[in-house]
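Note to self: keep these together.
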Amino acid sequence: MDGKDSKGGHLAAAAAGALAIDAPGEGLAALFQAHHRRVYQAAYRVTGNAADTEDVLGTVFLRLLRHGGTVEHPESYFHRAAVNVALDLIRSRSERGRVPLDDVAPSLPAAAHLQPDQQLAARELRACLRKGLGRLSPKAAELFTLRYFEGYSNPEIARLLGMSQITVSVSLHRSRRQLQRYLRQFVGAKP
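Structure:
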């Protein structure tokens, strides 16, 4: 993230500056330097939008600043925080009943081998999947994101979140079924 040409980039830079000034010693600034890329990447995989991702990045570190700036397990904390804040952002949009396709389309890569109508259908399907994620419980959405967007295995997710592998597997199975039902409704509603 270079942050030179976007409002969100300035927010992230301001957050980094605030962390460096307000943190006791180098703790918060060091955490930002060590983990901002992880937060950005995890949030981008969920939101699919650079501006939203930078908002998530700023929010994660500003929340940490407000709560004292110390983290016991930084790698898992920052990953979970990024996913949760990104999912909150998606949920807030779906609660307002709008996620304009024009806002999502520029950030979604188009498959060059598809015809324009197929590209449009793929973008709509990705937007629908993001809305469906917003309908899952926070824990289920987090597990789904870790597994299918981040590529973690079930044992890795169980270790990262302090859960049993069977709980992770059952939750993922239920989430997939719920998302499949939601996507079927989406596809069935099309002419």
